[in-house]
């Protein structure tokens, strides 16, 4: 290594260490940084953004801002974050694998105070994005009481926003997650329109009793991973369920009804298993949030006879809870089917906007009933 490179790395190391030492209020309890979604705060104050659209936001003064970010995954690959500055989306940022480094944020409009939110664009299966702080002059956020309603969106790759953003990398090129952008998935789009807080608990390819290409033999299904922080088989780190949503939206069935890719044996769809698992999964949700309103969604990717089967199953799930006086009535929403324009037969950003527009009256009514 050349002396100049060594000196540069040494100084950067000092800067990062000094920053983490001085900025002791990087801990989310300090209210300087506001976190949302499935996250893990480490003992040194750094925080892992885990799930799709998990985020960190903060206010800062001046026009200088860089983020210290790192992509963490056992496969050592990159991730993406989406940026919203002063209420406006300013693009997606590729977080390279390797050591934590500073990513400068371009300030488009000079103001006394700015607000930046950093959303994880990729999903939990792609590893975490480690947030170590910022060079900006951060202003503490006010300790405001909860005023907004909250919605949790449980689902598969559609809910993750997989394959929706082809602006920089066309379909069929790069890695399978290079077109992920959870910021532009239907849940976040809908939540911004309704002005509610949101949480995404979603995994690509996952189902209620089987997955896209697995009969629940090698891979975990949503009921297996939902209570785990990282939405995988690792139950050593349970999720804390502190979000307390007013509504839990479930959109699972696309993969259960799929035929896979033919590389593995695929059994006929088992309606009994699907309904039984769905009922038990809702009971799991009620265990953590007894008074929550549950909304069941069909799939915009399922049509014809398969949609009839899906709707029939969801009606059976609703019927099971119809006489349950301890919980709120379960609601059902049926999507209009669409021909998706994103990658791998997934909706693109415009498709997600259409889906969110379809959902808006339905969720407005549910929120009004709260």
Shape: globular
Report the β-strand fraction as a percent range.
Answer: 15-25%
Largest beta-sheet details:
6 strands, antiparallel
| N-to-C CA distance | 62 Å
Radius of gyration: 21 Å
Helix coverage percent of residues? 25-40%
Q: What string, H for helix and E for strand, traces the elements in order?
A: HEEEEEEEEEEEEHHEHEHEHEH
Structural class, please? alpha+beta
Number of helices: 7
| Poorly predicted segments | 1-29
Mean pLDDT: 90
- Please count the beta strands (DSSP E, at least 2 residues each): 16
Detailed description of the structure:
The protein is an alpha+beta fold. It contains seven helices and 16 strands. The protein has helices at residues 3-22, 157-160, 186-194, 222-225, 271-288, 304-321, 349-369; strands spanning 34-36, 39-41, 47-49, 55-61, 66-72, 79-85, 88-95, 101-104, 113-120, 128-134, 137-139, 150-155, 197-202, 247-251, 293-297, 331-333. Strands 1, 4, 6, 7, 9 and 11 form a six-stranded antiparallel β-sheet that branches. The longest helix has 21 residues, at 349-369. The chain is globular. 39% of the residues are buried. The model is unreliable at 1-29 (pLDDT under 50).
